Amino acid sequence: MAGSGLPSLGRVKLADLVPSEGLPSDSYKLSVSTLSQSLAQYSAAIIQFSVSDGALLRSGLDSARLYFHQRAAYPAPDIVHNNDPREWCKTSGYNADPQLWLETYDYRPGITPLEPNNMMEFPPAGLPDIFSVLGKAARDILDAISFYLNLRSSPFTEILDNVPLRNREISSSVLSVCCHARPSFQGAQHHNFATQEDGQLVMFSDHEHQVDKTLISVVRSDKPGLHIKDFQGRWVLVDEDLGPQEAIVYPGLALYQATAGFVNPALQRTEITNIQNNLFGRCSLAFKLMPKSMTSLSCSEMRAAGHGVEPQFQLPVPVDDFMQRSHPIDQLFNRQTVQSFNFHATPDGSMKPMMRRRKNDSKSKPLPPSKRLRLEAQRVLKERVQDIADKKGIKLRFCPLKDCESHIQTLDSPCANIRMEIGWPHGVPFVHPHDLPNKAKIGFLEAYEPGWSATNDMELGLTESGQASQSALG
């Protein structure tokens, strides 16, 4: 997903993202484009709900403030949050994390939460209605992203909960009612504070980089404080200018996996200012659209749509395993064409400075020639071919390698017009550069970046690198 210069977070009316039969309307296409560009540039977007739904969210936040305000100052030991990854689809009711000054109430349809003394708990009001509104919004947003990626309609239905849930089913998705830094919550022993010049107190999470393992998250808060890292590596306060009917939406790790890395997840952190003068803390409603535990995250839909699927995304991943294992940030975002969370990338997204640093780093080995060629080919595809296709309104649907070897020999073939319009290298099969033979990769790079071989800082010559690459893959 490539952004093209939105001056700020994209604002989209949810009503314009609801799909309908027949050809897409102009408002739908514009809304999908705005949403997708905003997610590419800022890893977040602003969604505008209807007047009635906006009122429901505001009343939910009012109820949340009262709910947490009446809680005890010191949480009981058995409701302190332990972050057990095995419980990812079973959390419900109240829990607390004293070190982060964070309290949450998880509403998960299919589970009746109980207090520690086995008494039924009285939750914040309106949670079933809020769950329904935000859940439908998250699904519409997911379908809009699928439309932008040229996937078939509702491609993720098989990994989502039934609507409505069947008898005895428990929802994988969850609505979390959160409260940060409630003054009457005195259980915290270690606060991570920083003092600003104006004397206000600011609190950040101890884990500065947090990533939701969701498909889609929709968040509405009563005070600004949600920071998300944009594609240039800057922290952006995304909920500073929300209207009364608006909420923030951002993608998570599960969508990153299911789209073969084409949709980057949001790195976020929470900031609370002026804690001492804040009676209720910072409350928020966060709906998390989750995949079902007994399914797998597969990139088959992306492959069917003609997108290149890198090796780490080739095999389906069981959802339960995906949710329980750790995902180091520096190993996740390795698509060098996307600047969002590549902490070693330069501001212009160029890969060459990163390669030079790797060569000069005594602790890391230089990338093998085949790896460099593959990364450079993917970069050229994103920066050159995709830009040409976008400007001409062409949807890139790559051919299988074996089929296209015969296509390039004939004038009347399925990909002939596309190859001609975007200036595809002569004699090179119309497939994703990742799938090209190494000699074809070199021809591909030279066609779109003349002189690349002379300026690229590889130790081996062009001929030697091609031979080394073939022997490495063989």
Automatic annotation (TrEMBL):
Residues 343-372 are annotated as: Disordered. This is 2-oxoglutarate (2OG) and Fe(II)-dependent oxygenase superfamily protein. InterPro entries: IPNS-like_sf (IPR027443). Gene3D superfamilies: B-lactam Antibiotic, Isopenicillin N Synthase, Chain (2.60.120.330).
